[in-house]
Amino acid sequence: xxxxxxxxxxxASTSAGYCQTAVPSGRxxxxxxxxxxxxxxxxxLAGQGxxxxxxxxxxxxxxxxxxPTLSLGASETLADKQPGRAQSSVSMDYSIxxxxxxxxxxxxxxxxxxxxxxxxxxxxxxxxxxAALAYINLTNVRQELSVRQEQLDVSNTRIKQLLxxxxxxxxxxxxxxxxxxxxxxxxxxxxxxxxRENLAQLELRFLTGLEExxxxxxxxxxxHRSIEPYLVRAQKRFDVQSARxxxxxxxxxxxxxxxxxxxxLSLGADYYLKRPSPxxxxxxxxxxxxxxxxxxGGFAGxxxxxxxxxxxxxxxxxxxxxxxxxxxxxxxxxxxEHSMAVMESLKTALGLADENAKYQAKDYTLGLVxxxxxxxxxxxxxQTKLQLETARSRASLGGVQLEVAGGGPDYxxxxx
Length: 416
Description:
The protein has helices at residues 2-17, 31-41, 43-63, 101-167, 173-208, 228-234, 238-258, 299-365, 371-405, 412-415, and strands at residues 27-29, 69-79, 82-97, 214-216, 264-274, 284-291. It is an alpha+beta fold.
């Protein structure tokens, strides 16, 4: 009687406990669509874009120094017991020569603006990598859920078979409990994967701005590639180019500071619309001003030293950017190559584990192995499937990392 009660409870829990759908349905989405949505939604990139606009405006401000300025002025002086002295004039000021500092400053500002534009382009590529990481992470955990649900289905079928065999005395109750315990562990692992799937959904929704469950597609595995083209392209990627532009700008700024001791020449002219006596008949007034710095209290020398230090720092930033680009390519290539190699080995292992699980189940019916052997074979098959999915995800991510490390993808500029 006790045995029948136990078996009935096992039957009820088996039929009702672990038959939920493992992979939630969702809106299909591709990696390209994910990136475009993330690009449109990114406040970080939008902020960087505003920074570029500020630099462009500053560049226009400097270029305005090459042109004369015009102003209209009017005044009236009142004194005790004296008639008012009213005056109005149009004034023009123009810097004829300032040691070429304005011209060099405008050129440096243009380089800084271009450097900011390049950094914005690179930020778009980094966003592509982050979007791909979130996309592949969600794909991987959904694949894991499929594998774990498949394992639960197999375990449920196994338990139903054991229940029948226990009833006829062909299997022991301990074997049924062992299978049931394994099923509970598999269900716990599935629940954990469902939690991670929910978090991955939230991350991808945050990037894309979508509010529904997403069902990303599997990214095709990258083909075997040579590393050399990526190493060459990496030295031309946007962040390295930006560092080069910044170094050029720093050199020009150092040149500007060196010219602080140069003389300057400016022209000023006033045309009087109204002028008090005794100069009421004089309409024009012009002045040519020459200034030669004789002593600045050490300011000019300190400015030169400061600019030289900034130039040296910019040179170090360029070296770091170039070395980092080279390392990024090598790391991504290594990840991709090893992940592909691991995948090939796991494919072989999966075939063998599948055959082993089938033979163990068959041998159990013949009484050649124990139920623990069958459970062990099933676990090996499950773990091999999960490892293969993880290796596939790493290979897919490695392909994207290699592309971004080499200065890609090329369409990020057009996507904006």
